[in-house]
């Protein structure tokens, strides 16, 4: 790596670290951990597509956590009335996790808060720079996803 490449690498690492320090206020469901909130987001996304819910193993794959970890989070969220376990309509042996009406309402509030927070960033950056940021972050995600899958197209120099 050249000196310029090294400096850019350090600057990228610094920028990534800075993103981790941002307080994403309002992005959590009330009384929930970040992991529980992400689980709720995952269920909401899948249910919007007409899914009757997700199996714990599917949730685990999406969140990259073990099934027992998902089960623990589901137990907590179920006790709070945000999710429910349902028998799969096609195979009653399969249990699916779905948002309750309360869970859907909580996620609507979180989503609204997220949109309000990000709208400030869009106003700050402007539409063109916001679109550039989206494209660049999508490229970063694609690069690291392909790298993790062993499909790296552009190996390090």
Oligomer: single chain
Counted beta strands: 2
Mean pLDDT: 89
* Distinct helical segment count: 6
Protein name: MarR family winged helix-turn-helix transcriptional regulator
Domain HTH marR-type: 5-142
Keywords: DNA-binding
Organism: Paenibacillus thermoaerophilus
Structure notes:
This protein is mainly alpha-helical. Helices cover 64% and strands 6% of the residues. Strand 1 and strand 2 form a beta hairpin. The protein has one domain: Winged helix-like DNA-binding domain superfamily/Winged helix DNA-binding domain (Arc Repressor Mutant, subunit A).
Short description:
The chain has six helices and two strands.
What descriptive keywords fit this protein?
157 residues; mainly alpha; Arc Repressor Mutant, subunit A; two-stranded antiparallel ribbon; 6 helices
Helices and strands, with pairings:
Layout: H1 3-20, H2 34-48, H3 56-63, H4 67-79, E1 83-87, E2 95-99, H5 101-125, H6 127-148
Antiparallel strand pairs: 1-2
Organism: Paenibacillus thermoaerophilus
Domain HTH marR-type: 5-142
Keywords: DNA-binding
